[in-house]
Amino acid sequence: MLTKDMHKQDIDSFLEGKGDFVKIDYLNRYIKSMPPIELRKYAYLKLAEVFTKKEMFVDAAGAFRNAAVNSVAFREKQENYLNESKSYVSAGKFDESDKALKRAMDEGNQKEKDKLYAETLEYYRNEAKKLESKGKPGHLVKLYEKMMRMKFPENEKDEIRNKLLHLYEKLGKVKEYKTLKGIDY
Fold first, then answer.
1. What does the DSSP assignment read for 5-22?
2. 183 burial level (CB within 10 Å; 0-12, 13-18, 19+)
3. 31-47 burial code (b ≥16 CB/10 A, e <16)
4. How would you class 143 by CB atoms within 10 Å of its CB: exposed for 0-12, middle for 13-18, buried for 19 or more?
5. Rounded to the nearest 5°, which phi and psi values hold at 55?
6. Sign of the C-alpha dihedral computed for residues 42, 44, 46 and 52 taken in this order
7. What confidence tens digit (pLDDT) does each residue in 13-40 have?
8. With the CA atoms of 143, 145, 151 and 154 taken in that order, what torsion angle do they form, in degrees rounded to the nearest 10?
C-alpha cells in the first residue's frame, strides 16, 4: 500500500509490475491520503502517464491539470497545462484544449507564449498525421476544421483546406464541401 511517507523511488518500486488499472487505483488512493505537495504532483504525473498509455486522454488531461495546480514553479505549471491541452486535442475536445492552452500562456511572457503556441501547432500537425495513418476520417475532419481556425502559415492552411475538401467529398458532406470551396483564404 502507498503511504504518505514514501518517496518517489518507493512509489515507483511499489507500482512496478502492477497492471495499469491497479496503478490507477493505488495512485488515486494515495492522492486522497494528502501526501506532501511535491509527491502529490508526482502521483498525478504518474496517473497522466498511465491514462495516456491507455488512450484515456480526458482523464490524462485532468491529471495534468491537477499536476499543474500542485506545481510551484511557473515553468512546471506551463508544461503541465500544455500537456493538458495536448491530451484534450488527442481526445478531440478542442474547446477544452484552448482553455488549457490559455492557462499555460497565462503563466508566461510573450516569448514563452509564442513558443507554447508554436508547440501546440506542431502537436496539431502530428495528431493529424497520426489520424491519417489510422484512417479515422471523422476525427480528422474535426481536427482539420479546428486547424483552419488557427494561425497556421497561409501555404499550410491551403494544404489543410485541400485535405479537408477531399475528406468532405469522401464522406459525402456536400454542404460543407460547397461552403469551403466557395471561401477564399
1. T--HHHHHHHHTT--HHH
2. exposed
3. beeebeeebbbbbbbbb
4. buried
5. 60, 35
6. negative
7. 999 999 999 999 999 999 999 999 999 9
8. 110
- Residue 63 sits at φ, ψ, to 5 deg, of -65, -40
* Backbone φ, ψ for residue 83 (5° rounding): -65, -35
Structure-block grid coordinates of residue 100: 488549457
- Neighbouring CB atoms inside 10 A of 180's CB total 18
- Residue 34 to residue 31: CA distance in whole angstroms: 6
> What cell does 127 get?
495528431
- In angstroms and rounded to an integer, the radius of gyration of the C-alpha atoms of the chain is 20
Which cell numbers in the block locate residue 13? 518500486
pTM for the predicted model, two decimal places: 0.91
Local structure of 36: helix, strand or coil? coil
Q: Are 84 and 65 in contact (CB under 8 A)?
A: yes
Q: Give the number of residues written for the chain.
A: 185
Q: Could you report the per-residue pLDDT of 139-175, keeping only the tens digit for each?
A: 999 999 999 999 999 999 999 999 999 999 999 988 8
Half-sphere exposure of 11 (CA within 13 A, CB side): 25
Burial letters 13-27, b for 16+ CB under 10 A, else e: ebbeeeeeeebbebb
